[in-house]
TrEMBL record:
Keywords: Membrane, Transmembrane, Transmembrane helix. The chain crosses the membrane at residues 154-175, 181-202. It comes from Roseateles asaccharophilus. The keyword Membrane applies. The keyword Transmembrane applies. This is Methyl-accepting chemotaxis protein. It comes from the Bacteria.
Length: 394
């Protein structure tokens, strides 16, 4: 896979934005992110110098880019929430061509998102260029070479590939304002779709739960590492007082703390991977939940029970939204672990321990995601069971 040596920072053609349509009226948007730089500086770098460049670039770029991305995704979530509220109001007002009015609202929101995307591109370009220049300078200093200015330029392309669009549920609601009345029969195709969507959703529950179990175990390992590091700091301080003038900071660090920092680095790397897996599996489950919600929306006019289950699916969506927000804390955990790792290279126990409180705080927030997913497993099964009963009655 191409990396910094090839001038590639990020190349994701289909990035599903981690936002949720809480009322099931909008489809999940996708963006393409392409951040690259010209390679005239790095192609001739010795491995030692490139390693320094790579570490310094990662340290300066990734945490800030994640923070920037989360901010933009937060804006997109607010835009989706506001848009869905407007769509919901249109369906209740029952005035004019509801479907056309809904589409106009969505078009206006999309135009705003595209404009904001342009701002994000420039912010990402400046951040990447700054990180590159500083990392290049650090690599030059490490090699004790004559300071020269970096030649490479950063290119950033970010585009919204899949804009906000109305879901089948939204279109159905718009149509129902004109064509449906209470007690209308549920179409056979909807009944069949309820069964199919229910099976898919039920099958994902155990898979998602397992991924969060792995995440929880790794969280526990990172917490244990943090506690061990803090305990080692106490031991180091005690050893320092005993040895007085014969204190050897490097040897003492290796004896008391180096293994704990290595374990932390290892487990945080695993945590980052498992958090990404959990996020992907949850996104798939959200799509499956959206599918059954779409079908329940179509069945609402012919079944009061479908209306209740639809409301429950929206409630579950809101809970899962909280889990997504909690998973974003992995970027802060990675940042604090990286700071600890850099401090360890300098044999600085004080700076290592300084990173621990923020790391532990972020771990606590991450743990809430695990709790949320375990809590929604029961309601999801209830939704599926109820949908299957509706299909069986007709």
């Amino acid at each position: 896979m191409p990396g910094l040596r090839q001038g590639v920072v990020i190349d994701v053609p289909n990035w599903k934005v981690p936002v949720i349509a809480k009322k099931k009226l909008l489809k999940q948007p996708e963006i393409a992110v392409d951040i690259k730089f010209t390679t005239e500086d790095v192609k001739e770098m010795p491995d030692k110098q490139f390693k320094v460049f790579e570490q310094q670039f990662e340290k300066r770029f990734t945490p800030e880019f994640n923070k920037m991305s989360n901010g933009w995704f937060g804006d997109m979530q607010k835009a989706m929430d506001t848009t869905e509220d407007a769509l919901d109001k249109l369906s209740k007002d029952k005035k004019g061509d509801v479907k056309k009015l809904m589409e106009q609202v969505v078009d206006k929101t999309n135009a705003n998102l595209v404009a904001k995307c342009k701002t994000w591109i420039e912010m990402a370009r400046k951040l990447a260029q700054k990180a590159y220049d500083e990392a290049y300078e650090a690599s030059i200093k490490e090699m004790k070479l004559k300071i020269t200015k970096a030649k490479a330029k950063i290119g950033v392309k970010i585009a919204i590939m899949v804009l906000l669009t109305l879901t089948a549920a939204a279109v159905t609601i718009a149509a129902s304002v004109v064509t449906m009345g209470a007690g209308a029969a549920i179409a056979p195709v909807v009944l069949a779709a309820l069964v199919t969507a229910g099976k898919a959703l039920l099958g994902s529950v155990s898979e998602v739960t397992k991924s969060y179990d792995v995440l929880a175990n790794t969280l526990a390992a990172v917490e244990a590492d943090a506690k061990a590091i803090l305990k080692s700091a106490v031991a180091l301080n005690a050893a320092k007082q005993k040895t007085a003038g014969t204190w050897d900071k490097v040897k003492a660090f290796k004896a008391y703390m180096s293994a704990d920092v290595e374990a932390l680095d290892k487990h945080v790397g695993q945590l980052d991977k498992f958090a990404a897996v959990a996020r992907d599996k949850t996104l798939r489950q959200v799509k499956e939940l959206q599918e059954i919600a779409d079908q329940l929306a179509k069945a609402k006019a012919g079944s009061p029970e479908a209306d209740k289950l639809y409301a429950e699916s929206i409630k579950v969506q809101k809970s899962m939204d909280g889990a997504f927000k909690a998973l974003a804390e992995i970027s802060e955990v990675s940042k604090q672990a990286l700071d600890a790792k850099e401090a360890a290279k300098k044999f600085s126990p004080e700076d290592v321990t300084k990173a621990m409180p923020k790391l532990v705080s972020s771990l606590t927030k991450l743990k809430t995601a695990v709790g949320v997913i375990k809590e929604v497993a029961g309601p999801i099964k209830t939704i599926v069971t109820g949908a299957q009963k509706i299909a069986a009655k007709k």
